[in-house]
Structure formats: structure tokens, C-alpha cells
Amino acid sequence: MTKVCITSSGPTLDSQVDPRFGRCAYFIIADPDTGDFEAISNEAAMASGGAGIRAAQLVASQNVDAVITGSVGPNAYPALQNAGIRILTGAFGTVQSALDGYRANSLEEIGTAGPSHLGMGGGMGRGVGGYGTGLGLGRGRGGQGRGMGGGRGSGRGRHRGGGSR
Q1: Are residues 141 and 80 in the same domain?
Q2: Which of 58, 102, 133, 159 is deepest in the core (most CB within 10 A)?
Q3: pTM: predicted TM-score of the whole model, two decimal places
Q4: What's the Cα-to-Cα distance from 40 to each of 6, 67, 147, 163, 164, rounded to whole Å?
Q5: What is the C-alpha separation between 75 and 99, in angstroms, rounded?
Q6: What is the C-alpha separation between 19 and 9, in angstroms, rounded?
Q7: Furthest-apart CA pair in the chain: how many Å?
Q8: CATH number at residue 22
């Protein structure tokens, strides 16, 4: 018997697929052949840290063959891989439509982890400086600059080198 886990915002097949693996509200464990399912509340969703690993352990304990979700973070990804669980993406809409997509083999298997938090990808922001002694690096010390901006121009614009204050 094949079992799949679908990340969900609610406990039914009519619930929406939740794109977040570690922070989804429910896991729907379903048999794609019979349509039988069980909803499991994701206790890890409210954890202050380590939600992805805890969620992966919970899912692995259900002996599922695949997880259908939007994104799996860098900590949960290897935990699922080591458990031999396939990770599929491309599902949207209801849990039922995700299950139908699995049956039709229309979902994509992902081979790498997503960003650590949805919406927190590694973009460069608005940076106006760069490397060297230009804007945003403060006091001309070069390199990545000092402070939380890492030299990407997110400071308050003081000490630009030259000019009056």
C-alpha cells in the first residue's frame, strides 16, 4: 500500500494545500489508490525552532512514501531524504487536487532544499554600495563592512567618505 503525506491548512480533502512543510497546520496521510485518509495535526508548527526536523520525524513515523508540499527547508530536507521519502512539489488548490496530481504523475520531484523560511530567500535587497570604500560600507574599511547590513547599503547613510556632515 502506498501512502502519501500532503501538507494542508485543514483536516479534510477539501482543505487547501499549505506550501510550508514544517509550519503547515495538518498533514493529510492518504492512500492514493483507495482515497482513505487521516489528518494529523502538526505539533511542530508552533515550535520556536526546529519545526522542519520535528515535522520530518512525525511524517517519517507514518511510513509514507512521498510528501507533497510547496517547499521543504534545509533541515527537514535531509531528514526526509534519509528516511527514503520522495519530496514532490507543484500541487496547489485542495488536498484532493494534489492527490489527483499524484495519481496522474504530474507533480515534480524536488532535488534540493528550499529557503529556510518561505519568503526569506537570499535576495540582495536594495544595496547601493558594493565592495571597497564606496557607499554603505562606512569609514572606508573595505570588505563586507561592519554591522548587520554586511556592506549592502542598508545603513543610515552616514560616513560615506568625504563631504561635510
Answers
A1: no
A2: 102
A3: 0.68
A4: 10, 14, 43, 62, 63
A5: 25
A6: 9
A7: 75
A8: 3.30.420.130
Q: Is residue 116, in this structure, part of any structural domain at all?
A: no
How many residues are given for the chain? 165
- Domain residues for the domain of 141 are 124-158
Beta-bridge partners for 6: 28, 68
CB half-sphere exposure, 40, CA atoms < 13 A: 20
**Residue 162 buriedness (CB in 10 A; 0-12 / 13-18 / 19+):** exposed
* Structural domain count, the chain: 2
Q: Are residues 104 and 130 in the same domain?
A: no
Same domain, 100 and 129: no
Cross-strand pairs, 30:
4, 37
Q: What is the pLDDT of residues 44-100, one digit of tens each?
A: 888 888 899 999 999 999 999 999 999 898 999 999 999 999 999 888 899 999 999
